[in-house]
Amino acid sequence: MAQQAAKIDLSVKQRMIIERLARSKTEPQRLVERAQIVLRSASGELCVDQGRALGIDAQRVRRWRKRFARTREMLAAAEAAADKADLERKIREVLMDEYRSGTPPKFTPEQVSLMVALACHKPSELGLPLSHWTAARQAVELKIVKSISGRHLDRFLKDADLRPHLSRYWLNPNIKSMEEFSAETARISALYMESPAPSAAGTHVVSVDEKTGIQALERIAPTKPPAPGQVEKREFEYARHGTTCLTANMEIATGKLITPTLGPTRNEEDFVEHIRRTVATDPTAPWVFVLDQLNTHLSEGLVRFVARRCRIKSELGRSPPSLSSHNRWWVPEPTRHPNSR
Predict the structure, then answer these.
(1) Where are the beta strands (DSSP E) in 77-124?
(2) pLDDT one-digit tens code per residue, 220-250
(3) In angstroms, rounded to a whole number, what is the distance separating the alpha carbons of residues 170 and 215?
(4) Max Cα-Cα span within the chain
């Protein structure tokens, strides 16, 4: 005796949701297929006929028809107690794949922890004469695991949000007075936060810094563009043209870089010329420069340039003893030009 197919009855709301899923061009194909099975089953179409029309096995039709029929009472209760969005979420859950445990883990939590810890240590810390290593190979040699690929171990590191093979340069601040440092930090932060207002009024608030030791390299042959079946090919060998220094300004309000300077050196004359070129782009506007305390940022030449721009007539003096450093100068506090900083 043939087994009777599960009966499916749809309410108006349920049918509207499932019809939209069945017609969708963006939903996952498996979800669209299962929505179509439910609609055809609700209309009384045989499983064999559905399988033939959808190009799938009739057994798959029976399985999803039976599974949806079992959720009739649950969907009815959800429809009575929830809004349309919650009902759609319930229907989607019914039509999606059930949870599968998958393949049992190959490594124990203890093994994973040991391998992650190993990858985060330097070889020299374990007495090995290496600067870098493949942690997966070392894990096997230390008999933490019998075998593991580097890619597999990298997944464990990624899950732990660790990238021990990467690094970046870091500068530890030389803070002599935390109170002065905090006050200066607060002042600069406030200037940055308020920069849109003076920028809208025509004042340039600019952060200036240098990057030194940039290698000027030239490939000895041109790069070949990608072609069908081939990636871009870049020449491996290059010619050295020494190093260069980049001095750049970033306008705080807009984030734009303005008047960058490239040159072989970054001495006092270079920096004064860079500031002069920057001011010359808008000579009548007020300028506010944010700098670190590099000696070229406190040089005699820069102080004299600022004094001329600010129309300061009083005599310039040497820096106070507390600020004494090679070639540092200071300007007394006479009146300044209103359009200068």
Answers:
(1) none
(2) 999 999 999 999 999 999 999 899 999 999 9
(3) 20
(4) 113
Question: Which run of H or E residues covers position 209?
Answer: strand 204-219
Residue 268: pLDDT band (50, 70, 90) is: very high
pLDDT at 125: 82
Residue range(s) defining the domain that contains residue 261: 192-221+234-330
For the question of whether the overall pTM of this predicted structure is more than 0.85, the answer is no
Average pLDDT, the chain: 86
Tokens for 97, please give them.
Answer: 């794949």
Tell me, yes or no, whether 21 and 121 share the same domain. Answer: no
Considering its fold, how many domains does the chain have in total? 3
Residue 126 is assigned to a structural domain of this protein: yes
Residue 208 has a CB neighbour count (10 Å cut-off) of 17
Is there a single domain that holds both residue 254 and residue 295? yes
160 vs 131, higher pLDDT = 160
The burial of 293, by beta-carbon neighbours within 10 Å (0-12 exposed, 13-18 middle, 19 or more buried), is given as exposed
* Beta-strand runs (E) in 38-93: none
The CATH number for 275's domain is 3.30.420
